[in-house]
Amino acid sequence: MKVASHPETRPSRVSRRPQQLGTSRRGWEQALEEMGIARYRAGQIMKWIYHRDVLDFESMTDLRKDLRSRLSRNFEARTLRIGHEAISRDGTRKWLFHLDESNSVESVYIPDPPRGTLCVSSQVGCALNCSFCATARQGFNRNLDTAEIVGQLHAARARLLDAPPSTPAISNVVFMGMGEPLLNFENVVNALEIMLDDCAFGLAAKRVTLSTAGVVPGIRKLKERCPVSLAVSLHAPDDDLRDELVPLNRTYPIGELLEACREYLRGLPRERITFEYAMLDRINDSPVHARLLARRLRGIPAKVNLIPFNSFDGSGYRRSRVESVEAFRNILLAEGLMTITRRTRGADIDAACGQLAGRVLPRSRRMRKLRAADGSTPPGHVPGP
Ligand code: SAH
After folding, report:
1. Is 353 a catalytic residue?
2. Does the beta carbon of 203 lie inside 6 Å of ligand 1?
3. Which pTM does this prediction carry?
4. Residue 32 confidence (pLDDT) above 60
5. Phi, psi of 67 (to 5 degrees)
């Protein structure tokens, strides 16, 4: 796979003015400076937007009147609109956001008191083509811009204000929705900076997790720019199997990936990397796989997250048997690896791992081929309004 050709730098859409929700502290400071306005106003403006939920500059009463109208002319105050909401029996909520006429993404809110976790998307579709993931089936359409990533958190937080009082506020964010966040690097890092900024969402870096299929150069850059918690979708302990499940492995094999993980943790003594492992019946779930996995992770401060495979039509895989998962876990535990089996949440509303699909108009050639092949809509396809 030629990763260099991924559209990392392609503008995600034609935008006339910078957007409020897409502007980080540095962005505001720069823009204000260009307008001849003191940089310290950046924090003041961000607090209006994120702490008081005021996006209309005219209502930011501690700014001079002429400044307010100049800002109104220069920035766009667009927010994301929730297109559809589904609420699971377990309290998990899934939202569909319409980004433009042809693109939608999904975000999932998972309550686990006292925590509330929001799972956000970073791309419409995904280019990585992991063999067991529903998102992969719809092809890749475009990157989300910063405002669209931050917009998911902004809209979710607002929506939860109407939820029952026992609903925990969003304390954690995970980039485990649609897309590969490290292939949309600049927009994702900008969004992370806004999520962590005390004048915006003020989340602690360890409560924000970026999950990657293993884009090694991206892991290195992330360490320099914004070292949040890292999760790596491993799914296999050897290259032959991983090449098949996660084709990106042909570009960045396991040895290189684990080396990047070790480097990521250097100087972060209390941190661990989460390794995600979808349990696929008789594919990657034997005791031999478990022992090999434990051997490969030796010496890396790690946490292994076993994810029961979430099935979808035509996936060609089955979920591992409960006994296999249990045996796998026991081997890892005996080897001293912190291991948890992730509870499946929101499966009744198709909100579980790998089930997010959003809506991508059938533009990509791959998708047309797929549809022609089985004569159906892609798995997990969410009908539009
Ligand atoms: N592209 C990033 C972000 C997506 S995270 C990454 O790969 O990490 C979504 C997680 O769910 C990943 O670990 C992914 O491998 C896993 N996943 C995908 N499809 C799944 C499925 N059908 N069942 C269980 N887990 C799945």
Report:
1. yes
2. no
3. 0.89
4. yes
5. -65, -40
Q: How far apart are CA 248 and CA 214, in angstroms?
A: 7
Q: What is the pLDDT of residue 373?
A: 41
* Whole-angstrom distance, CA of residue 121 vs CA of residue 135: 11
Spot the catalytic one: 119, 126, 133, 353.
353
User: What residues does 54 pair with on adjacent strands?
Assistant: none
Q: Is the CB of 309 under 6 A from ligand 1?
A: yes
pLDDT, tens digit (0-9, with 9 covering 90-100), for 49-81: 999 999 999 999 999 999 999 999 999 999 998
Chain length of the chain: 385
183, amino acid identity? L
User: Reduced to 3 states, what is the DSSP secondary structure of residue 25?
Assistant: helix
Listed residue (196, 145, 190) closest to 173, CA to CA? 196
Q: Looking at ligand 1, which residue's alpha carbon is closest to its atom 18?
A: 354
Which parts of 57-145 fold into alpha helices (H)?
65-74, 134-137
Is 80-372 a CATH 1.20.120.450 domain? no
142 phi, psi to nearest 5 deg: -165, 165
Query: What is the average per-residue pLDDT within 170-180?
Result: 97
The class that CATH gives domain 25-74 is: mainly alpha
Distance CA 283, CA 261 (A): 25
Q: Are strands 229-233 and 93-100 parallel, antiparallel or unpaired?
A: unpaired
Closest Cα to residue 380, out of 126, 142, 116, 90?
A: 126
**Model pLDDT for residues 200-209, shown as the tens digit of each residue:** 999 999 999 9
Euclidean distance between the first and the last CA atom of the chain, given in angstroms as a whole number: 35
Instruction: DSSP letter for 310, please.
Output: P
Give 95's DSSP letter.
Answer: E
Specify the 3-state DSSP secondary structure of 44. Answer: helix
Cα(354) to centroid of ligand 1, in Å?
5
Predicted confidence band at 331 (pLDDT cuts at 50, 70, 90)?
Answer: very high
User: Is there a catalytic annotation at residue 106?
Assistant: yes
- Does the beta carbon of 140 lie inside 6 Å of ligand 1? no
pLDDT at residue number 269: 83
